[in-house]
Every structure is written in structure tokens, then in C-alpha cells.
Design a protein that fits this description.
The protein is of the alpha/beta class and 369 residues long. The chain folds into 2 domains: 207 residues, Quinone Oxidoreductase, Chain A, domain 1, CATH 3.90.180.10; 135 residues, NAD(P)-binding Rossmann-like Domain (Rossmann fold), CATH 3.40.50.720. Helix 11 links the parallel strand 15 and strand 16.
Length: 369
């Protein structure tokens, strides 16, 4: 079938994107679902920093690629061997498909599926197939999803069924922002009641982590961001305080925290996060910088203060378990994720949306189809 989709042909185009137009809205061909695959009509898609990282080249991927990885939608058709989903089901997408058979999957850590990592990097579905093309030229899939499009064909493991009573606009945020931020707090770090928490970077993932810390009954929760509007949003969502990380003397002023969550994806933020982690504390990073980048810490400080540095991918989630749990917390008022949406746009507005995202002026922009 023919669908409208957002296509990236070349990474690293100069800003402003509103002028250089790296993302083109094209009519492309979408093949029907094969065995184990599902056709989904996309309802709402979130514009995430991980998408920007592909556009600006920080997350190198093959092109031409149909972008998008955070979304909700409705199942229209299922392929052979799909048993847990049916037409009419409401679903959210997941950006790490899981094979269920590799070492990490068998160990209960599907967010680290080795096959999923390799096929995501290759720009294919989990089985190695491509279902997108134009004029006979195959187009690549972004992390097995490519939801900046009217419809998407994905592996069934890239979907989680949600109840139909949940608005699809809210459901979309559970696809990435919520599981990445809340999961980092509840799974990767397992923040205990009363612990002190800092969140560095108050975008969609950072504010979701803040909500997760509040839901985990953490003690003092402090946010850090360069932009005053985002610091104000953190206070609105329950942070005790919020600071500019570039404020002179801020490290000495705030002291140390039991858990610090780096949600930016740059080296300065990572090094700042480690600096405000207290003795015996833990720094958790869910941000993704360019593969060439490295950060620097004082080795003796790591050892003598017994600090811990951890990475968190997909919030260390088991999505079939965690997404329903986080939705339940949302419905009980403990994770007000609907407050993350800062702007609703159309598919044709993506280049301008990436400019706003790069400027840091938005929390979560969503494409409404």
C-alpha cells in the first residue's frame, strides 16, 4: 500500500532544519506483514531526542530511512504466526524488539537483546526484512519501528497491547519517554524510599524520571537544566528544587545525591552528574552521545568513594510487565505523563519540530495523524 512517511536521506544537515529540510514527506510503498509481523495504523507519534540524534548524525544509521520510534496506534492486520495481537487492538511501539532466545533475553533482560541490537543498527525488522520502499529502492526502518508514517509494519515483539480506554495520545508516551525515564529509576537504579535524587536534563525522559522518583517515594528530588521554563516544569511536577547546572559554584552548593540520572546525552552533562553523586552513590545515564565521545572521571574518586556508574537502555524494562504497570500508576495519578506533551503538530511540521527540540524549547511534541 501507499503511505505518507517522513524520510531522512542524509544525516548531519546544517541547521536550521526549517531551511535545510533534511526530513522529506514522501509517498512510499509499505509491504504487507510477513510471518510474525503486524500492520499498525499510527495514531500519535512522539518526537524524541533519539530521532534528532539520527538527523544530526550523533546516532549513525543507514539511509534512506523512515524515521520515528515512539508511537501508539491500532492493529489493522496480522501476519502468519501472530497469536497475541488481533485487528482492532490498541498498541504502543517498542524500539527494541526481542528475539526471546539470545543470552540476554533468556536472562530476563530483553532490553539488551543481541539480535535486536544488530537488526536495529542494520535498519531492518527483527527478521532482517525491509517492508518499506520507493520506486523499487528499499528504505530502512528506524529501530524496527519507523512510525513517522501513516502506517507501519513491525515485528510483533515491537508492540505491547494496551487497554482501549487509555487515550492513544497518552499511550504514545509510554512507548519511549516513560519506559526510558521511569524505568531508569525503578529498574536500573531501583531507587529506595527516601533516597535523594537528582535529574540532569529535564526533557521528556528527564521529567519522566522525575515522576518515577516521586512515584518511588524518593526523598529530596532536584532537577537541573539550562532552561528556566524546564526548571519551572520540574517544580510543577514535584521537584523540591531546580537549578541551572552552569551556575557558578553549583556543585558545592547542592552537595551530593544518592542517585543522579543523566538524561541529556552529552559529555558535560555526564561529568556534571558524576560530580554531584555522593560517596557511595550511583550515576545512571540514559542519554546517547556520539559514538566517538568519551567522558572523564577521576579514577581514585571512583574507587575511594565507591561510586557506581550505570547505563540504562529502554529503562532496563521488560515491556510486557512494565508498560501495564506504569499505565496503572498513570491512571492512579502517580505518573502524570500527559503533562509532558507541550505541542501537537502535523507530519509536515517535523523539520521545525526538530529545530525546537535542538533548541531545548519543547518537552514532548507529538504528531497527531
Amino acid at each position: 500500500m501507499k503511505i505518507k512517511a517522513a524520510v531522512l536521506h542524509e544525516m548531519g544537515t546544517a541547521r536550521p532544519y526549517s531551511e535545510s529540510r533534511p526530513v522529506q514527506i514522501e509517498e512510499v510503498e509499505l509491504a504487507p506483514p510477513g510471518p510474525g509481523e503486524v500492520l499498525v495504523k499510527v495514531a500519535v507519534a512522539g518526537v524524541c531526542h533519539s530521532d534528532l540524534s539520527v538527523v544530526n548524525g550523533n546516532r549513525p544509521r543507514p539511509t534512506p530511512m523512515v524515521l520515528g520510534h515512539e508511537a501508539s496506534g491500532v492493529v489493522e492486520e496480522v501476519g502468519e504466526d501472530v497469536t497475541r495481537l488481533a485487528p482492532g487492538d490498541h498498541v504502543v511501539f517498542v524500539f527494541m524488539p526481542a528475539c526471546g532466545a539470545c543470552e540476554m533475553c533468556r536472562a530476563g533482560r530483553p532490553s539488551l537483546c543481541s539480535k535486536g541490537f544488530s537488526t536495529n543498527a542494520a535498519g531492518t525488522l527483527l527478521n532482517g526484512a525491509k517492508r518499506l520502499s520507493k520506486d523499487g529502492v528499499p528504505y530502512y526502518h528506524q529501530v524496527g519501528v519507523s512510525c513517522f508514517a501513516e502506517r507501519a509494519v513491525v515485528d510483533q515483539s515491537s508492540l505491547v497491547k494496551v487497554e482501549k480506554e487509555l487515550p492513544l495520545e497518552d499511550a504514545a508516551l509510554f512507548s519511549c519517554a516513560v519506559i526510558t525515564g521511569v524505568g531508569a529509576v525503578m529498574n536500573t537504579a531501583a531507587v529506595p524510599k527516601g533516597a535523594s535524587v537528582a535529574i540532569v536534563g529535564l526533557g521528556g525522559t528527564g521529567l519522566a524520571a522525575l515522576m518515577g522518583a516521586k512515584a518511588a517515594d524518593a526523598g529530596k528530588v532536584v532537577g537541573f537544566d539550562l532552561l528556566p521554563d524546564k526548571r519551572a516544569k520540574a517544580i510543577e511536577l514535584g521537584a523540591n528544587e531546580a537549578f541551572d547546572p552552569l551556575q557558578e559554584g553549583i556543585v558545592e552548593q547542592v552537595g551530593g545525591f544518592d542517585y543522579v540520572f543523566e538524561c541529556v546525552g552529552n559529555i558535560q552533562a555526564m561529568e556534571f552528574s558524576y560530580a554531584i553523586t555522593k560517596m557511595g552513590g550511583t550515576t545512571v545515564s540514559s542519554g546517547l552521545s556520539h559514538p566517538d565521545k568519551t567522558f572523564c572521571i577521576q579514577h581514585v574518586n571512583l574507587v575511594a568513594q565507591e561510586k557506581t556508574i550505570k547505563g540504562s537502555y529502554l529503562g532496563s524494562c521488560v515491556v510486557e510487565r512494565d508498560i501495564p504497570h506504569y499505565i496503572d500508576l498513570f491512571q492512579r495519578g502517580e505518573l502524570p505523563v500527559d503533562k509532558l506533551i507541550s505541542r501537537r503538530i502535523g507530519l509536515e511540521d517535523l523539520n521545525e519540530a526538530f529545530d525546537r527540540l535542538a533548541d531545548g524549547s519543547e518537552v514532548r511534541q507529538v504528531i497527531v495523524f
